[in-house]
Amino acid sequence: MSVTDTAKPKTAPGPALIYNPRVRGFVYQALLLAAIAFLFWEAASNAFENLARAKIASGFGFWHNTAGFDISQHLIDYSTTSTYGRAFWVGLLNTLVVAVLGIVFATVLGFIIGIARLSTNWLVARLAAVYVEVIRNLPLLLQLLFWYNAVLKVLPEMRDSLLLPGGGFLNNRGLFLPQPVFKEGVGLVLAALAVAVVVSVAYHFFAKRRQVQTGQQSPVLRVTLALVFGLPLLALLLTGFPVDFLYPEKGRFNIRGGMEVLPEFMALLFGLVIYTAAFIAEVVRAGIMAVPKGQAEAAYSLGLRPGPTLRLVVIPQAMRVIVPPLTSQYLNLTKNSSLAVAIGYPDLVQIFAGTVLNQTGQAVEVVVITMGVYLTISLVTSMLMNLYNRRVALTER
Amino acid sequence: MSDIATITDTRLAFVRTKPFDPLPPPIVNSGAIGWLRQNLFSSALNILLTAFCVLMIAWLGPPLVKFLIIDAVWDGASRADCIATPQRPEVGACWAFVIERLGFFTYGFYPADQRWRVDVFFVLLAFGIGWITWLDAPRRDLGMIYFFIVVPLLSFFLLVGLPVLGLPYVSTAQWGGILVTIVVAWVGIVVSLPFGVLLALGRRSRMPVVRMASVIFIEFVRGVPLITVLFMASVMLPLFVPEHLTPDKLLRALIGVALFASAYMAEVVRAGLQAIPKGQYEAAMAVGLSYWQAMRLIVLPQALKITIPNIVNTYIGLFKDTTLVFIVGIFDFLKTIEAARGDVNWAAPTTSITGYAFAAMFYFVFCYAMSRYARYVEHRLRAGDRR
């Protein structure tokens, strides 16, 4: 492992071949390559032998075989007669749903707690610190088991369901919410929303250009809010509320209608959000503290009020520090959602690396596909991250 | 001058010759009240927030204390002691359950007459940890050898057994509880540091094959969840080795954890290596040290020293992640809690929560101690920089 390539003039008598860093480097690399190749070859030949002995099929033929098991939560059509391939997509969607919702809630909670830790209010800062210290130092799996077994599973039974305001029910079999049913005319509302978004974006660019040319600022935020909420609301009023709610109805032993949220899903979401929020809070705190105090003071001395100072000076600089570790927290959350297997939420790992693996016995294919999914998510995210970093770096001196 | 003096004497009745005594500071800005005003009630928003926090503490605090201590059951022999009765309508945490099953939580199914071996292992380990974490301890180099080489060898024979010396063989299937948690965490710690250093050096190597191999390994392991690595170790590993060499279940999990921890450690060490100024490498080369000499004597000592806080933080993550071996069927501490929780003999409404509370305290004590230590080292290192 040489650090330098000492290129000597050709005329000088070179050292013995064994002391030539280039030759040595070449030999080391060849040896490493040979060792890796040997390991792979050995593993593959053993695997073929073991699989043949155990009479386990190999290849991806199982993808189109009938799965024959049921899945408690499926966002796309699925039944026991569906294929393993279909089960894979169901599991992947379930993983993505919990990851996306988890990321949204964990970001909100994490920013609130991170800012609370920097609050001038002693009590608020202390409470936030206690939250972060306690949650970060407990294993996520323990927290998930706690939420699932000690909180959600001891809720009242179906018969004595808790009635929630707005017509929902909560019991130990899950959360039952009213389901929105869209009638004719809802298209107009969606169209109004789309128009609002397009106009807002256009207004944003217009305001920016105007500020560059004339120095005058426009109330972008207020106009955007008014458009995005106002237009759809107006459309709703004009079409006479084309949305109905299908309320869950309580029977003796079960609840009919409405939307059912599994307790496994809730436990996983609670656990992931509460756990990741503690880490995001630390990221946010570190990011804000990384902005030198002089930046805010300089803004005050120029006459900016605290609000604009925070919005225009501190936050843009803090975001540069916050975003990379924040993304890695998002990735962690996505990867941690695989702990679903411990509480029985049908995510990718539970369905695929659990049930499908046990039924087919094709460990290599199943584990490789599962790992491939997570690896793809990770690599795509870090690629986007690098793009973002390059964009941010451009504005630096 | 004399004019003024005469005016003073005749026209004005009184002129102070000494200044007033200073007034006491306004009570609203100093002392306890000032502190309260400044820190809790400085604005309308802050008053609201303070009220909210006080309400939250009042809502959560007393019931928690009541449940964990006041209403708790401290001794008993079965579920009957932890169930609410008309005489005692409020039953809190069932500590009797934890106390009765403490042996199970600590040793799992380790034979009762052999449990002293586990105790000796804990003592050996605690001694080693004390030696290398105490920064001013004598002969810390010997401590490193003791912790990374002597203890692993000794405890292997101690825990697995050496019939020649009268230590009967104990199958790893009988291991469990805190013993397994500590073994998994500690194997991860001992293996991940050297492997992490090698991978980090490989990633910064100029040889493309070495660099690519390191990068692929590190990014691959860091890109997938630990569970899938454990699945791979437990279901794929037996396929990849000849049948007679199939490692036992615990060893497979240990391999998975060690691989995973090494990849994370590699990135931590790499950050430390990057923080060492280039001049250090160049100076080492200038005095004629070989690559390995330069690394061992110049670069790594500095890089590892500034990385200690991050290394300890990685160990905290590793310690928490040991709970995941539960999913591939290893009887770690959390799994013993889960098993004991379902015991019919102790089936009471508060048993589960008590078990989880106990587990939470165990993990919190270890992780919090580690994070305090990391912060202490960080502080000490910064003191060196301040000079």
Could you give the distance between the termini of chain A? 36 Å
**What's the number of helices of chain B?**
15
Strand tally of chain B is 0
**What is the name of the CATH architecture of the largest domain in chain B?**
Orthogonal Bundle
Give the low-confidence spans of chain A.
Answer: none
Largest sheet of chain B: none
Strand content of chain A: 5-15%
- How does the overall form of chain B come out from the CA principal axes? flat
CATH superfamily of the largest domain in chain B: MetI-like
Shape of chain A: globular
Mean pLDDT across every amino acid position of chain A: 83
Notable traits:
heterodimer; A: 397 residues; alpha+beta; four-stranded antiparallel sheet; two-stranded antiparallel ribbon; globular; B: 387 residues; mainly alpha; MetI-like fold; 2 domains; 69% helix; 0% strand; flat
Describe this structure in words.
The complex is a heterodimer of chains A (397) and B (387). By secondary structure, chain A is α+β, with helices and mostly antiparallel strands. In chain A, 66% of the residues lie in helices and 7% in strands. In chain A, the strands form three sheets. Chain A has a four-stranded antiparallel beta sheet with strand order 1-2-3-8. A two-stranded antiparallel sheet of chain A has the order 4-5. In chain A, strands 6-7 form a two-stranded antiparallel ribbon. In chain A, a hairpin with a 2-residue loop joins strand 2 (168-171) and strand 3. Chain A is globular. The relative contact order of chain A is 0.12. Chain B has two domains: 1-69, no CATH class; 105-386, MetI-like fold, CATH 1.10.3720.10. Chain B has 15 helices and no strands. Chain B has helices at 2-10, 31-39, 44-70, 95-100, 102-107, 115-133, 140-160, 177-203, 208-223, 226-240, 249-275, 278-286, 291-321, 333-341, 351-386. Chain B is flat, with a radius of gyration of 31 Å. Chain B starts with a helix and ends with a helix. Classes of the chains: A alpha+beta (397), B mainly alpha (387). Chains A and B meet through helix 1, helix 3, helix 4, helix 11 and helix 12 of A and helix 3, helix 9, helix 10, helix 13 and helix 14 of B.
